[in-house]
Specification:
The protein is globular and about 50 Å long. Helices cover about 35% and strands about 30% of the residues. The chain has helices spanning about 50-60, 80-90, 110-120, 125-135, 150-165, 180-200, 210-215; strands spanning about 10-20, 25-35, 40-45, 65-70, 75, 95, 170-175, 200-205, 220-225, 225-230. It is built from 7 helices and 10 strands.
């Protein structure tokens, strides 16, 4: 391997996803093949209904493809049973969704610590690590506020801290700024970019915001059941 070449972290081979609707088969995508290198910040764009979220779910072992393979390093995701897939997700992947899915009756600190509780970490250790991550997302002072008392932007920052508290290699984000106003969305995207760099993450973002997509290191466009590489400069920053 050339010293400047990045190691491949994810490989998708001939991926196909079909949904059965009554007597009809809906082919979301077919024969998708691409690679993601370690450290990349990859945007996946495409029209609504193109299958972007379904693709992200398959990459994160939350869903299975109809055909094809996904390799995460040496791990063949398609070969994992449910228990193995859950263990893989907990160890390797951090997720951020358009809606934050925080537990409103718990504090910000408890929400961030939740994945560590699930892992069996002691309360003291889990909450210490959660507090550090709340600091990383600029919410050190908000730890004891219930999630339901936070603004939309703050809730999304908490969900980002929760995604990264387990030290995953890969961050998967599905429209992470889609529920926020433009100014708040911009600050959350900036935060994702900074944490991506600081923690040497590999990040895959589904986004309809083409201005944000332009700021990623690579863009894949999902359309017509296939995928193509798009040059960032070919996307208008005013779209999305």
């Amino acid at each position: 391997m050339h010293p400047m070449e990045k190691e491949e972290i994810l490989r998708v081979e001939a991926l196909r996803k079909v949904y059965r609707s009554g007597t009809t088969d809906l082919v979301l995508f077919d024969n998708l093949s691409f690679k993601v290198s370690e450290g990349e910040m990859l945007a996946i764009v495409g029209q609504s209904g193109a299958g972007k979220s379904s693709l992200l779910h398959i990459l994160g072992a939350l869903d299975t493809a109809t055909a094809g393979e996904v390799f995460f390093g040496e791990t063949r995701l398609t070969a994992l049973n449910e228990e193995q897939a859950a263990e893989f997700r907990n160890r390797e992947i951090g997720y951020v969704w358009q809606f934050h899915y925080l537990l409103p009756e718990f504090t910000a600190l408890e929400n961030v610590a939740m994945p560590l509780y699930v892992r069996g970490e002691s309360r003291n250790k889990a909450e210490k690590e959660a507090a550090r991550w709340l600091g990383e997302v600029g919410l050190a002072e908000r730890g004891h506020h219930r999630a339901g008392e936070l603004s939309g932007g703050e809730q999304q920052r908490v969900s980002l801290a929760r995604a990264l508290v387990t030290k995953p290699k890969v961050l998967l984000a599905d429209e992470p700024t889609g529920d926020l106003d433009n100014r708040t969305a911009d600050s959350v995207f900036e935060l994702i970019s900074r944490l991506h760099a600081d923690y040497r993450l590999t990040s895959i973002l589904v986004t309809h915001n083409l201005a944000f997509a332009r700021r990623c290191s690579r863009i894949l466009s999902l359309q017509g059941g296939g995928v193509e590489e798009v040059r960032p400069e070919s996307l208008s920053p005013t779209q999305g």
